[in-house]
Amino acid sequence: MKTNKQLALAVNRNLKSKEVKIGRWAIFDGEQQVAPDCYSPQTAWSNAVIAICCPFPVGSKVLDKDSGAIYEIMPSTFGYPHFYKNEKDRVEGSVLRLFRYSDSMRFEAVRDANDINPTR
């Protein structure tokens, strides 16, 4: 399995980790910070991969094909995809789950109500 750094660099080769203050690291695209800073370079890459590798843009609706639930992609403070919420506006988790783990194929973008299978 690829590391978070490898996944992020596969999307954007310009990314670099920088120590932003003593003991705090962040990932940058040029001068633009792409995700929140944290306590280690490894965690910074984890934040970056969440932010830039999500296959769904902020605001898009995503269908969980197993449960029939529809989620909305929410932005981080930096404007990148970060969390997803359910139809009751409850945050369900990190978008990393939508593309990183083995169940990633169970999620698909929903363009309109006709995209949803009415038998669910």
Describe it.
With about 120 residues, this protein is an alpha+beta fold. The protein contains 3 helices and 8 strands. The protein has helices spanning about 5-10, 40-55, 95-100; strands at about 15-20, 25-30, 30-35, 60-65, 70-75, 80-85, 90-95, 105-110. The strands form 2 sheets. A 5-stranded antiparallel sheet has the order 7-6-5-4-8. Strands 1-2-3 form a 3-stranded antiparallel sheet, covered by helices on one side. The model has no long low-confidence stretch (mean pLDDT about 80).
Overall morphology: elongated
Q: What are the secondary-structure elements, in order, as H or E?
A: HEEEHEEEEHE
Counting H and I runs of at least 4 residues, what is the number of helices? Answer: 3
Terminal Cα separation, in Å? 33 Å
Return Rg in Å. Answer: 16 Å
Largest sheet: 5 strands, antiparallel
Low-confidence stretches: none
Attribute tags:
single chain; 120 residues; alpha+beta; 2 domains; 5-stranded antiparallel beta sheet; 3-stranded antiparallel beta sheet; 21% helix
